[in-house]
Amino acid sequence: MEAGSRVRAEYDFDAQPNSGEMSIKAGETLTIIKAGIAGGWLEGKNTRGSIGLFPESYVSSVQDSLVS
């Protein structure tokens, strides 16, 4: 995964308070801001504009498709 790519949450993740983490819900689409963070984390943004860290293992890549 790389910065700018989109991912879909496969599982819910509850962030720890004041940790820089972001809670995510299964089915939510996120945009990666920074990948390759030590320990298997990604930094991303959700559709509401929140930014934070979440586990890379909780998300999968979204294939963008062209609509004609």
TrEMBL record:
- Pfam families of this UniProt entry? SH3_9
What domain of life? Eukaryota
The cross-references to InterPro entries, in alphabetical order and at most eight, read: SH3-like_dom_sf, SH3_domain
* CC per GO annotation: cytoplasmic vesicle; plasma membrane
Name one process (GO BP) from the record.
endocytosis
The family database entries (PROSITE patterns) matched by this protein are listed as: SH3 (PS50002)
**Entry's Gene Ontology molecular function annotations:** phosphatidylinositol binding
Ordered alphabetically, the record's keywords are: SH3 domain
Domain SH3: from-to ranges: 2-64
Q: What is the name of the protein in this document?
A: SH3 domain-containing protein
In which organism is this protein found?
Answer: Diploscapter pachys
